[in-house]
Fold:
Amino acid sequence: MITKTKSTVLLGLAVLLAAPAAHAGGLWGDKMEATFGAGVLYGPLYAGSDESQAILVPVLSVQRGILFADSTRGAGLQYQFGNGLYLSQSIYYDLGRLERDSSWRPGSDSLKGMGRVPGSVTTKTMLVQPLGDRFNVSAEAEYALRSSAHRLRYRVGAEAKLFNGNANDVFLTADVHGGDRDFNQAYYGVSVAQAGVTGRRAFSADSGINAYAAGVRWEHKFGDRWMGIAQINAMRYAHDVSGSSMIERRNSVFGNVALTYTY
Structure:
């Protein structure tokens, strides 16, 4: 049950899996690379929930040259320019939100009467620009393509390498999350009709920043092919949505651990 805000935790893994297309092998590369594994993801049942749970999630990435498919970015194209700028464009899926408990989608029985936030195929764009050996900035945008559920979310962030060793790397991350009015209303808004059914206070969400996040990620290499990843993030919902009755806990903690194998 991966909520939209859990993408904060998965971002580090997404960037890690996003090995840029090698120039030496041309656009199509000279070999296929694959990474697979499993992880445990901890976070709220849905964005703003005061209930949390841990779930098992797969880790999968297959890529050759500019082509890739993985469990965090979907399937699409990637490229690294000569100045280090990494760009990927992919098709993904936004799971939406249910008004009942689910073992694999965001939702809770406590949302009964709120209606379903419909899932949608999305188009996702990611940019990562290294600034030296220990720092990079990134931006990401995801737009839902379903005609009845158009919505846009975006993120800008930065990552600094605090420690670099033979087997261990430690990173500090910071991100700002936002959405257009349709996105913020879908996940944080409460219409008058919904308020009448659920007893929640009505709230109309505008476009803008909805959360700030900061975290720490540790990567440990077990030889050339195995890697362990542990990450923890703290998120605070921003003033643009913090007044919503959907925000039952303004400060949330997310975390994950994963073990991967690359060949």
